């Protein structure tokens, strides 16, 4: 199993806009709303990919989401 910096998870959550529940999304990658995702904190890659899938399924236009993240 690999790991991805929590900073990326935070950036992905920020890119979805205000449409989704931030606390619920953070919980997918085991982060709390009071915690600022930083470079040193790592999250399991499986949780990160589940986060991406959750956001993509919840958005009306998932095709534009990767562009916003990038």
Measured between the Cα atoms of the first and last residue, the distance is 24 Å
If you compute it from the alpha carbons, what radius of gyration comes out, rounded to the nearest whole angstrom? 11 Å
Derived from helix and strand composition plus strand pairing, the structural class reads: mainly alpha
Outline type: globular
Number of domains: 1
Strand percent estimate: 5-15%
Explain the overall architecture:
By secondary structure, the protein is mainly alpha-helical. It has one domain (3-69). 51% of the residues lie in helices and 9% in strands. The chain contains four helices and two strands; from the N terminus they run βααβαα. A two-stranded antiparallel sheet has the order 1-2. The longest helix is centred in the last third of the chain and has 14 residues, at 45-58. The radius of gyration is 11 Å and the shape is globular. The N and C termini lie far apart (24 Å).
Q: Briefly, what is this?
A:
With 70 residues, this protein is mainly alpha-helical.
């Amino acid at each position: 199993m690999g790991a991805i910096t929590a900073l990326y998870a935070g950036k992905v959550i920020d890119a979805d806009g205000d449409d989704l529940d931030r606390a619920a999304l953070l919980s997918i990658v085991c982060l709390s709303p009071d915690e600022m995702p930083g470079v040193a904190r790592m999250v399991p890659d499986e949780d990160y990919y589940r986060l991406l899938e959750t956001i993509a399924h919840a958005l009306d236009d998932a095709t534009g989401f990767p562009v916003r993240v990038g």
